[in-house]
């Protein structure tokens, strides 16, 4: 089975500052990796995903994430945040073979709050 | 429709009552998932439908929970004899096989 740990439950930052949201995973099989964002009172929206190839993945709204296989990490970064980035961010993994194919395993989420 | 829709958006019920939650997936998506999001926690997998295959029910927390899907369309999640610990946001997602999951806005269930 797979599991995901998001190391920070809350991250407060000031506008235009850089931010990193940390995610580590555990899996006995190879996985796909995802970051989702949930704005208040809205559903989850995919920010970016790693399937294969380049370990640096760029997503929407200026976010990027780097897959580090040796450290089993997939940290999310943005060089300069905006107030509109205030939301809950979820890291997720999915096995690409086996009995749990397609099922997403989520971390507990990180609440990013951007202050003016 | 353009995206996954769920109804109702909010449901308040009394302990012991049954509830039915509905999900309309994106047309053409063969895979459909139900997840539960309890306060302060991540999303928890409940059940997965893929085409005409037997559903993966391994995430259902108890036999009070059941779900059905008609072909590759609407799905309903039923919770019988609701308990306060069932209070959560129930999210539905759909996808093509092995592809990105698209999530609905969720149903917020409150059990009094």
Structural write-up:
The complex is a heterodimer of chains A (116) and B (112). Chain A is mainly β. Chain A has a single domain (2-115), classed as Immunoglobulins (Immunoglobulin-like). In chain A, 0% of the residues lie in helices and 55% in strands. Chain A has strands at residues 2-6, 10-14, 19-21, 23-27, 31-38, 44-50, 56-58, 64-68, 73-78, 87-95, 105-106, 110-115. The termini of chain A are far apart. In chain A, the strands form three sheets. In chain A, strands 2, 5, 6, 10, 11 and 12 form a six-stranded mixed beta sheet that branches. In chain A, strands 3-9-8-7 form a four-stranded antiparallel beta sheet, with no helix packed on it. In chain A, strands 1-4 form a two-stranded antiparallel ribbon. Chain B has 112 residues and is mainly beta. Chain B has a single domain (5-91), classed as Immunoglobulin-like (Sandwich), CATH 2.60.40.10. In chain B, 0% of the residues lie in helices and 47% in strands. Chain B contains no helices and ten strands. In chain B, strands 2, 4, 5, 8, 9 and 10 form a six-stranded mixed beta sheet that branches. A four-stranded antiparallel beta sheet of chain B has the order 1-3-7-6, with no helix packed on it. In chain B, a hairpin with a 5-residue loop joins strand 4 (31-37) and strand 5 (43-50). At the A-B interface, strand 6 and strand 11 of A face strand 4, strand 5, strand 8 and strand 9 of B.
